[in-house]
Amino acid sequence: MIFPIFVVVTLAEIYVLVSVGDAIGAWSTILLVIITALIGSTLLKQQGWSIMAKAQQSIAEGRTPALEMLEGVVILVSGVLLLTPGFITDGLGLLGLMPWSRRYFINHFLEKNAERVFSQRNSVFINRTKSSESKTANKDEPIEGEFWEDK
Fold first, then answer.
1. What CA–CA distance (Å, rounded) separates 59 from 99?
2. Contact between residue 81 and residue 89 where contact means Cβ atoms under 8 Å apart
3. Residue pLDDT, tens place only, 19-35
């Protein structure tokens, strides 16, 4: 399934690059690809640090940085798309770096895959929040649990 996507995207990129090259010239097209890569790398760095700060803030507040991790994945994919020369992949990569469209991609992905993600066997999702009772709890209190080893 992924191979045909790569072939179609590559052919579309070549077509767009040749069409733009015919319209504005080869050197202008190359310059435009370089400019989009520079803008994209600047946005990639800025958005990456922003998400890192949000994740650290979530951890400091005792929340799981799940949304920030998903945003980090979208930023990573956007970075890969920006490294790929071409206007279509650069456009998709720049969309992935915009916070409003990044949230759209994450929401769309979760809507399509929520049942598969959250119904996995052997999956455990724990969300602990700091509460008044956890602040007063004794830190030397043993933690109960089960352990087994496959032989």
1. 20
2. yes
3. 999 999 999 999 998 89
SS3 sequence, 66-83?
HHHHHHHHHHHHHHHHHH
Residue with tokens 């980090």: 72
Q: How many CB atoms lie within 10 A of CB 6?
A: 9
DSSP letter, residue 144: P
57 to 50, 60, 64: CA distances (angstroms): 11, 5, 10
Q: Which of 112, 114, 83 shows the shortest CA–CA distance to 96?
A: 83
**30 close to 85: Cβ distance less than 8 angstroms:** no
Whether the model clears a pTM of 0.85, i.e. scores above it, the answer is no
Q: For residue 147, give the 3-state DSSP assignment.
A: coil
Place of tokens 């490294």: 83
